[in-house]
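Good morning C.,

I know you're traveling, so I'll keep this short. The sequence:
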Amino acid sequence: MASNRHLGRIISLQSLYEYEFRSKAGDQTAEIDSIVAKNIEPYAKALGDTEFVRDLTRGVLGEVEKLDEELQPLAPEWPISSIAAIDRNILRIGLFELTRRSDVVPPKVVINEAVELAKAFGADNSSKFVNGVLGTAFRNMGGEEDTHAESKQQESESKPESDKKPAKRSRTKKAGDKPAKPESDSAGKTDLPQSAGESEDSGSDSDQTV
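The tokens, ready to paste straight into the viewer:
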């Protein structure tokens, strides 16, 4: 059976996000293995290799403090705690695979997958921010400079979505203005399960196994 690792990363992201949110809310019943098992269940057949999700999620959570320490110099203007929870966990997954699993997953696949997760679940600038941070990490490892189809100009202009957003200046509403897009992170919720079912394979993960 083929292993759908793109779907696996979505479930891992969902599980890490849920665990972090519940833990910060003081939920003492939050337990990562139970969360992962619950999130895998609806997609077990399409997923194939369920151990990939468990290993990835446990690996990231087991080194979360170290990963955050390594991420901070890559985005010095943005403290890890101020980055939106979705972006923060995408970066953790990406850096974990990039630095701890480079012998299993090609680095460019790791970055492409992280960018796709950011496009699907992050804010408008999330994919550019994730690409810039992980691209810097890859170059620091001695990798090639170009990592994803995002341009260098886009990377330099990108900013992460923040959990604590600065106040926006008000402006006069004009006829024809579209209503503001709701923040996906403001209520501590995300539509990850539905997207997981819709995005079983992005085609960018060439490390699928059979």
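Safe travels,
E.
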